[in-house]
Amino acid sequence: MPRRAWQDPGHTHTHTAHSATHGYAGFVGKLIAVDFLTLDGVIEAPGMEEHSAGRNGWALRAMGSDAQDWNLHQMHTTAAYLFGRKTYQIWAAFWPTAAIDDDFTRRMNEKPKYVVSRTLDRADWSNTTIIRGEVATEIPRLKREIEGDICIHGSADLMAELMRLDLVDEFRFMVFPVVLGAGKRLFRDNADLRHMQLVESRTFTNGIVLLIYERAEAEPTSEYVDAYTWTQEQIRSLHAAQDTSRVLATVMFTDIVDSTGRASALGDRSWRQLLDRHDQLARTEVERWHGTLVKTTGDGILATFDAPTRALRCAVGLRDILDELGLHIRAAIHTGEIEIREGDVGGIGVHIAARALDVAGDRQVVVTRTVRDLATGTDLVFTPLGSVGLRGMPGEWELFDASAGRAGDS
Question: How far apart are CA 177 and CA 248, in angstroms?
Fold first, then answer.
């Protein structure tokens, strides 16, 4: 039996972001992630908006009348919409002038809408409020001020932050029978482990499946966990068969501070040119210090070195060079065992460096204690940042801010 009936409740009672001052703080809105997904997890361009590889319209081509009835029902029961900037701009460009003259379009334009952005100058779509504050405080406040479902569509960058903060109450996925092979995905690599509980499902015509999940109260377990646990002998046999190349290396991650804001301010063409210059300078600096540029990450790099001092000098040098272009970067460095893969690297050492980057601030070079200990005796200065928990990593990690100084400084 379905968990909820498919019926229009007649109306939805909403309050804007200013309602708390009028005594409505008792409401508890439910934040729901609503997405069309391909079998390989892509959410980009289900409609006729542009797709990075030209593969748009995959959801429209498979949509049947029964699946569209569900979309209409869901829109009726939505109290407000929440967007990231890019998804908002796509919707705001289509819906106000949509040629579909029906109840769906009218209600879509009437619904309250909230867009999280620090760079959006104006929002002309009707009933839109721009949220410029911190997501960690603004979204819980929005949930307190709105009675009913707050639906977020697409908005992968914002979704990643909302999930990290554990603010999403429910996931509604309409899964389409297509493997797209390219495009933005909803869930990021290295996201936190989360367990979900399936609360409703439905199959539509054309092979579309609706899956509705809520957060599980506890980690599931079963008799099969013990039954299929690997023995040490089996693990050793696997490692021997894989012949994985593991080495001790120093891993360096960098990224550009506020890259989204810079991209928005410069425009796509100028930003692409600046990124190309960034990549060129990064490659040159890594080679100068005898490192290996493993890959660029969109707005940063991943590189490895055979000595932590070389990684440190590369990070400090690249930071200073990019300052001249008006680009501020941050960096994180860790020394540990890594796995050498074809064209890439992996392993716990890489994950530690990536998580340390989350802690780094504007123009900071953050290093782990291992790096600090191995680089002792150089002219580099290490300022303690204290012990912190790194997302997804066990225990506390002692971190330091590294900078170039004079010999004898401390």
Answer: 43
Alpha-carbon distance of 250 to 335, in angstroms, equals 4
Instruction: Kindly state the tokens that stand for 131.
Output: 């949220």
- The residue among 336, 320, 311 whose CA lies nearest residue 253 is 311
What does the block give as tokens for 269? 């063409």
Pair (31, 136) in one structural domain: yes
Report the number of distinct structural domains present in the chain.
2
Q: Alpha helix (H) ranges present in 192-326?
A: 223-227, 232-242, 259-266, 268-288, 308-323
Structure token pair of residue 250:
């120093």
- The tokens describing 162, both together, are 């909302």
pTM of the model: 0.58
* Pairwise pLDDT comparison (27 vs 295), residue with the higher score: 295
Residues 171 and 65 in one domain: yes
Contact call for residues 145 and 76 (beta carbons, < 8 A) = no
Query: What pLDDT, in 10s, does the model give residues 259-273?
Result: 888 888 888 889 999
- Cβ–Cβ under 8 Å, residues 62 and 208: yes
| Amino acid, res. 241 | A
Interacting residues of 304 by C-beta distance below 8 A, sequence separation 6+: 249, 250, 251, 252, 291, 292, 294, 338, 345
Q: Is 80 helix (H, G, I), strand (E, B) or coil?
A: strand
